């Protein structure tokens, strides 16, 4: 705690895991004796670097770049890059720590890492984003590689940024390798990767509902965010017959009581991915209400998907959701619920899926992209979607195995933490004190 005193998000993520893993280690002393949790909470390596670039007016801009290489016990470091002004070392350490357990849960051979910058792509021209990405990769390239560390996208890093980063890596190294995932389909990307996180979180909810003899069809759903994860959550919900009534961004949320249909979703995708506009334009276009500065948790729903960012849902929001009849919360984002909110969900014994289990579909398909790159081959859409579904089913089973309590309630948080921990811990013990 003293060593990381100025890292609140990292401490929050570690405490949340320690609550399940410490009692488990007490019962399985080999983990305690080998100080596995203590070792897992210290990154193997952190790289911090200067990112200078020229804006369109010819002025010099400086940002800070990071890569946290957290754990490589079960495979090369793997995890996204985030470009957002709120990025700090604490935020990236929390994300990297969560990523280690998440990647382990997928069953694929991937260690955990995370990186990014306090650069804000919002309001920047394509040329400025390109210059920033090139400068960022000019330093990062020496620390990553297809068998070393394979970054991907996250908040503020989508197809455009991955393209610029990949182009610069290829130019410096003079080789075409799978050093990043989330690449375009024509140049080494995998089908279903853009959809994978959003689809995966919906598949996870379907597994949870199925275990209670329930289905997604006919349910009312609220979603926060309107980026990659939110968009494909909505797409899959529509396909499965659920009604999605909200989307948000950092300026507020829209409430469409009629439900977001496929045509409206196409508008959102064009608005957010191409025009880089604001979600309030949805309200103007379709004549529904926009709530500035607010989050959508007050809207009555059966299922909530917090899909924007960390700590966006607190205990007051959690109580409102439950009072309004919400039966399930599944995290598309990483750590969107505060510890107090999680307590409210678990006390009410509603279905609660933590991000490291529910949103693992994205990194799982990134893992499949790495496999396809190694094979120099591309699999078809159906094959990848089937693999994604079976990985999500297997994560659900692992959560049930380690998280079922005496009264039959499945504590998915505990289940995900322990299941993710065991595999990494066993590999660390086998590899000695390194
Ligand atoms: P995007 O950048 O595509 O979208 C992010 C969305 O969240 C935007 O609507 C953005 O609004 C909103 N948002 C971001 N920061 C804030 C903030 N501080 N306050 C309010 N709203 C905010 O990112 P993704 O959809 O890729 O990521 C969303 C979440 O999902 C993150 O927690 C990420 O770590 C997690 N995740 C993503 C995966 C992926 O494959 N992409 C995989 C697993 C998890 P605005 O445009 O106004 O900033």
UniProtKB/TrEMBL annotation:
> Which UniProt keywords are given for this protein, alphabetically ordered?
NAD, Nucleotide-binding, Oxidoreductase
**Swiss-Prot/TrEMBL site (Important for catalysis) positions:** 154
- List, alphabetically, the Gene3D superfamilies matched: Glutamate Dehydrogenase, chain A, domain 3, Leucine Dehydrogenase, chain A, domain 1, NAD(P)-binding Rossmann-like Domain
Q: Which GO terms describe its biological process?
A: glutamate biosynthetic process
- Positions with a binding annotation for NAD(+): 197, 228
Per the Swiss-Prot or TrEMBL record, the active site comprises 114
Show the coiled coil region(s): none
Query: Looking at the keywords, is Calcium present?
Result: no
Q: Which GO terms describe its cellular component?
A: cytosol
Quaternary context? Homohexamer.
Sequence similarity: Belongs to the Glu/Leu/Phe/Val dehydrogenases family.
Protein name as annotated: Glutamate dehydrogenase
Source organism: Pedobacter antarcticus 4BY
């Amino acid at each position: 705690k003293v060593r990381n005193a100025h890292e609140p998000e990292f401490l929050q993520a570690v405490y949340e895991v320690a609550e399940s893993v410490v009692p488990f280690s007490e019962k399985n002393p080999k983990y305690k004796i080998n100080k596995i949790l203590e070792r897992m909470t210290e990154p193997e390596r952190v790289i911090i670097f200067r990112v200078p670039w020229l804006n369109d007016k010819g002025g010099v801009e400086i940002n800070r770049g990071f890569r946290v290489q957290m754990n490589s016990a079960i495979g090369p470091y793997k995890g996204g890059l985030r470009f957002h002004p709120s990025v700090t070392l604490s935020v990236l350490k929390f994300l990297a720590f969560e990523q280690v357990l998440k990647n382990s849960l997928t069953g694929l051979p991937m260690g955990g890492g995370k990186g990014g910058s306090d650069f804000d792509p919002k309001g920047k021209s394509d040329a400025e984003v390109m210059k920033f990405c090139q400068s960022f990769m000019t330093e990062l390239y020496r620390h990553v590689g297809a068998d070393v560390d394979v970054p991907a996208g996250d908040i503020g890093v989508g197809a455009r940024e991955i393209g610029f980063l990949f182009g610069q890596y290829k130019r410096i190294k003079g080789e075409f390798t799978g050093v990043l995932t989330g690449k375009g389909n024509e140049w080494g990307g995998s089908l279903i990767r853009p959809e994978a996180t959003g689809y995966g979180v919906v598949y996870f909810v379907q597994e949870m509902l199925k275990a209670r003899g329930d289905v997604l069809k006919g349910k009312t759903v609220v979603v926060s965010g309107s980026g990659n994860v939110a968009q494909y959550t909505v797409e899959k919900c529509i396909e499965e017959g659920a009604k999605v009534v909200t989307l948000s961004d950092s300026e507020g949320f829209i409430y469409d009581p009629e439900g977001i249909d496929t045509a409206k979703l196409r508008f959102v995708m064009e608005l957010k991915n191409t025009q880089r506009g604001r979600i309030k334009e949805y309200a103007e276009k379709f004549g529904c209400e926009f709530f500035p500065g607010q989050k959508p948790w007050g809207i009555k729903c059966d299922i909530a998907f917090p899909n924007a960012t960390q700590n966006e849902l607190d205990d007051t929001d959690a109580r409102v959701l439950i009072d309004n009849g919400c039966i399930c919360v599944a995290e598309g984002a990483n750590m969107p619920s505060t510890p107090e909110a999680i307590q409210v969900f678990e006390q009410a014994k509603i279905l609660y899926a933590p991000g490291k289990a529910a949103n693992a579909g994205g990194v799982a398909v990134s893992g499949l992209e790495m496999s396809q790159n190694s094979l120099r081959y591309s699999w078809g859409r159906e094959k990848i979607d089937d693999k994604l579904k079976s990985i999500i089913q297997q994560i659900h089973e692992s959560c049930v195995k380690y998280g079922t309590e005496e009264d039959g309630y499945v504590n998915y948080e505990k289940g995900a933490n322990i299941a993710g921990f065991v595999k990494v811990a066993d590999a660390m013990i086998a590899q000695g004190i390194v």
